[in-house]
Each structure stands twice: as C-alpha cells, then as structure tokens.
Amino acid sequence: MSNPDLQLELHGKQQEVAIVRLTRPSKRNALNDGLIKALRETFDNLPASVRAAVIDGQGEHFCAGLDLSELQERDAAQGVYHSRMWHAALERVQYGPVPVIAALHGAVVGGGLELASACHIRVADESSFFALPEGSRGIFVGGGGSVRIPRLIGVARMTDMMLTGRVYNAADGERIGLAQYLVPAGQAFDKALALAEQVAKNAPMTNYALMHALPRIAEQPADQGFMTEALISAIAQSAPEAKARVRAFLEGKAPKVQKAEA
Ligand code: 1HE
Fold first, then answer.
1. Pairing of strands 121-125, 52-57
2. In a mutational test of the pocket of ligand 1, which residue from 22, 24, 26, 28 has the highest number of ligand atoms less than 8 Å from its CB?
3. Are 135 and 162 in contact (CB under 8 A)?
C-alpha cells in the first residue's frame, strides 16, 4: 500500500498496535477513492503481529467525509459501485482481524462519521463535532451510515441529523452514543492508544468473538442468539490461553475487578 494520504505505523514492543492515520489535513482528511482503497488494503494486510488498531486524522479535523470534488462526475450506476466500494472498505475495518479504536477530534462529519461508526470504540476529544451534512448537500449517506449509525443512536436521531443538519458537540455526541469516551481537547489519540494497548492484551479469541459474533448475535432472534452465544463461548473458553487466565485468577495471580472511580 502506498498512498501519501494514509500512513501505517506500528507501535509497542511486539508491534502489536497499528496506527492508521489519515494524512490529508489540507483537505480536512476528505476521503477520495484512492484513500478508501488504501484503507481497505491496509486492513486487509495488517502485519500478523497486530492485535489492535487506532484510526486517527492529522490536523485539526478527524475527517470531513466524502471528497465532494469527486462526486460531481458520477452517474447513477457509478454511484452504486462507489457506495459498494466504501462498504467493502469499511467492512474490513469492522470485520477485519483486530478491534479498531477511532481517535476523534474536530469534524467527524458525513463519511467521516461513517468511518468512525465502523470502528469498535470511539474516543472523542472536546473539540469533536458530529454531523451528517449529506441532507443539506442533496445526497444520502453511502458508506454504511444508514446501517451503522442508527444502531448507535437510533433512527430518530439520525433522521433529525440529516433532515435538519443538526450538529452534536462532543459532550452531546458522547451522551447519545456516538462516542464511548470523552476526553479533554488534544487527548483523543493518547487515550485511544492506551485503550488499544489494553485491548491488544486480551485473548485473541475473546476479541474475535466480540468483533465477529456479538454484532451478529445482536441481529439474531433471541432463540438463535442464545445458541450462537453458547457455541462461541464454548470455543473461547476452550482455548489454552483462557484456561491459563482463569487459573491465574484462582491462584491469586491475576488482578481483581476494581471499583470504578467516581
Ligand atoms: C473538502 C471537503 C470535502 C473540506 N470534500 N474537499 N462533507 C461535508 O459536507 C463537509 C464539508 N467540509 C466542511 O464543512 C469544512 O471543510 C470542515 C468543517 C470539515 C472544516 O472547515 P475548515 O474551515 O477547517 O476548512 P475549509 O476551509 O472548509 O476546507 C479546507 C479545504 O478542504 C478546502 O479546500 P481548498 O482547496 O479551498 O483549501 C475545502 O474545499 C476542502 N474540503 N471538506 C472535498 N468533504 C460515502 S458517502 C459520504 C457522503 C458524505 O460524506 S457527504 C458530506 C461531505
């Protein structure tokens, strides 16, 4: 993969955290076709050492969404292919090999919010703002937003965002579920990296079950969900690593769950 607008860095003693950075700040990290393809390739080809990833945006904004300069040339059929290309790329983020944590700041808008929604954890700093300007641009989401965003905030809130151009600030974004963490301005990347380091220590099968089984269980009727849960939990607990971790706790060698700080 070689695209000047996307950077891959490996972090940690075992190079266990991938840092994937949008590096097109002059265009507010707007996502052109080349960048979408590079994202897909990057998540398809993460080194085997990687156990978690962080997505970050260079400059003052996480991502201004679709590169609007490319939109004007497309006919209807090309529009379908284009949207499906986004779907394929963001599927690699959501259902790729490792959990992905988005470090959000500044504009998280349009396709930028669609990209963030494909991640497993979103950390927003206080400068973040969330919007879906597609409504006012006479278009519709095309990067999976209509599937993923209502699952985070509900159909009514997404409808409002698109109908009225409503912009959520960081605190309100966190309150309604667009982000799971809210941190002071300038600290989203550090927090996301710390979370990624934590996530990278989990048993791989637990992370796999959370990424690949949990969202599917959530879509299943309860009766089938219970069965899928039984199967995946049996597979996870049978791994030697799971046995070792449980044994360590029983022998007093693993940390207890601590009361949350107020
Ligand atoms: C862009 C884009 C872009 C900036 N495509 N070039 N997304 C939007 O409708 C959001 C459009 N962008 C904005 O509202 C603002 O740019 C921001 C709030 C993100 C940032 O504002 P600011 O004042 O920091 O930057 P700026 O001066 O507006 O932009 C700097 C440059 O980036 C400028 O180019 P320049 O050559 O004049 O310097 C802008 O034209 C350029 N730029 N955003 C192209 N989005 C799969 S479907 C998804 C559908 C969507 O995502 S639609 C929503 C698109």
1. unpaired
2. 28
3. yes
What are the catalytic residues? 114, 134
Please say whether the dihedral angle defined by the alpha carbons of residues 246, 54, 37 and 159, taken in this order, is positive or negative.
Answer: positive
CA of 242 to the centre of ligand 1 (A): 47
| Ligand 1 atom 48: residue of nearest CA | 111
Asked if residue 118 has its Cβ within 6 Å of ligand 1, the reply is: no
Q: Is the CB of 30 under 6 A from ligand 1?
A: yes
Characterize the bridge pairing of strands 107-109 and 168-169.
unpaired
> Looking at ligand 1, which atom is closest to the CA of residue 140?
49
Output the six-digit token pair for 168: 């959520």
**CB-ligand 1 contact for 120 (6 Å cutoff):** no
pLDDT tens, per residue, the chain with 262 residues: 589 999 999 999 999 999 999 999 999 999 999 999 999 999 999 999 999 999 999 999 999 999 999 987 789 999 999 999 999 999 999 999 999 999 999 999 999 999 999 999 999 999 999 999 999 999 999 999 999 999 999 999 999 999 999 999 999 999 999 999 999 999 999 999 999 999 999 999 999 999 999 999 999 999 999 999 999 999 999 988 888 999 999 999 998 999 988 7
Q: How far is the C-alpha of 219 from the C-alpha of 74, rounded, in Å?
A: 34
3-class SS of residue 212: helix
